[in-house]
Amino acid sequence: MSEKKTTPAPSTQEGSAEHPRGIRSFVIRGGRLTNSQENALAKQWANFGLDAEAGVIDPAKVFGRHAPLIMEIGFGMGDSLLTMASANTESDFIGVEVHKPGVGRLLHEIAEKQLRNLRIYRHDAKEILRDCIAADTLDCIQIFFPDPWHKKRHNKRRLIQSEFVELLRPKLKVGGTLHMATDWVPYAEHMMKVMSAAPGFRNAAGPNQYSSASERPLTKFEKRGQRLGHVVNDLIFVRES
């Protein structure tokens, strides 16, 4: 589940005159940290955390090599991101999340498994893309189960909007992919409408077609949704220009 969990890092609280805040796509909520999560935040952030204030990153310096780079926006508790990073050691991964317990849990797991190919931002993803990721850097952007904002009056808060997609596109390499998934059918339809109209993208499955979910692991959230009869739709779009 994506960017909807809890309090962001303090530096994300206010927009500046140069960069006004705009509408948030996540809810700021409290969340209790377990001892292991709190310890991981205190002890492992220096090893696996990335600070937004540092500005544009050089992935080769961050990871010590040149490799395909995947960013997951809103990784929740980090289950799928951890699984993918563990299974695909030839690629490097960056996770972005504002949910402090989720960040703490993933830091703990990265240290436990001694992963060298996964780093984390705890910050607003829009600001990370704007300020920290250079153009033509990412091979894939993943957005799995973002908050669907069910009520019509809240639809404007949905993360997948034309303005956000325009922010994403130049960060992807030409040929790179934007992979999204949702278990809320109206949101899937909204995503399809936005992406089909987005310049510079091609639907990998064909016009107005949903893609296979075979490229990502199932999360606990998704498995629960399946038990409840939810329909999960994946969308994969390729940057062409």
Short summary of the structure?
By secondary structure, the protein is α/β, with parallel strands linked by helices. 32% of the residues lie in helices and 18% in strands.
Summarize the structure in words.
- It contains eight helices and eight strands.
- Helices cover 32% and strands 18% of the residues.
- It has a single domain (34-51, 60-239), classed as Rossmann fold (3-Layer(aba) Sandwich), CATH 3.40.50.150.
- The protein is an alpha/beta fold.
- Helix 4 links the parallel strand 3 and strand 4.
- Helix 1 packs across helix 4.
- An eight-stranded mixed β-sheet has the order 1-4-3-2-5-6-8-7, with helices on both faces.
- Mean pLDDT is 87; it is low at 1-20.
Give the tags:
single chain; 241 residues; alpha/beta; Rossmann fold; eight-stranded mixed beta sheet; 8 helices; 8 strands; 32% helix; globular; disordered N terminus
Give the secondary structure arrangement, pairings included:
Blueprint: H1 35-48, E1 49-50, H2 59-63, E2 69-73, H3 79-87, E3 92-96, H4 100-113, E4 118-121, H5 125-132, E5 138-144, H6 162-168, E6 172-182, H7 185-197, E7 201-203, H8 220-227, E8 233-239
Parallel strand pairs: 1-4, 2-3, 2-5, 3-4, 5-6
Antiparallel strand pairs: 6-8, 7-8
